[in-house]
Amino acid sequence: MNVKIPDDELLITRTFDVPAATLFALWSKPEHVKRWIGPSNFVCREAEIDFRVGGAYRVLIASPEHGEISFSGVYREIIPDRRLVFTFAWDNDGPSAGAETLVTITFEEHRGKTVQTFHQRPFMTVESRDSHVGGWTEAFDKLAAYATNIAKEHIK
Predict the structure, then answer these.
(1) Per the CATH hierarchy, to which homologous superfamily does domain 10-155 belong?
(2) Measured in whole angstroms, how far is the alpha carbon of residue 66 from the centre of its chain?
């Protein structure tokens, strides 16, 4: 059954080859987030995370082409290893300034692998939504590689 996603929503489902507890931890600690957040041509220079409901986060990413860009938000819901909800807003003065979205991530473990469902909404335009698809997809590519490396280190 195909579900039609409204134009103001982004939905990315990805399976990771690690348990849910491992994947969840990679979203919750700055030392991990710094290793994977941002598109492939970006590095994370700063990640400040107050990981509790009502706590804030701020991330600064940078690339040679785009310079430094930061985003921030507040954690709304945290259910360890199962669900994470937070606000997301770019800290800039461009066309997306002041536009806050809500990110909801669920983690479902099946036989040692985890299905991560990433949902972000509402976007002001289809173009704004679509501009996030590549960035999040590339970040999740980096997350998958990092998660696999973390899992291998724990097995040793």
Answers:
(1) START domain (3.30.530.20)
(2) 19
Task: Rounding to the nearest 10 degrees, give the CA dihedral for residues 21, 26, 30, 32.
Answer: 130
Contact assessment for residue 106 and residue 118, using Cβ atoms and an 8 Å cutoff:
no
H-only helix segments in the chain: 20-28, 30-36, 126-155
Total number of residues shown for the chain: 156
Digit-coded pLDDT (tens) for 66-119:
899 999 999 999 999 999 999 999 987 655 666 899 999 999 999 989 999 999
| Unique residue bearing structure tokens 């997301």 | 88
Q: What is the pLDDT of residue 156?
A: 39
Q: What is the CB neighbour count within 10 angstroms for residue 8?
A: 15
DSSP 52: S
Q: In the 8-state DSSP scheme, what is residue 147?
A: H
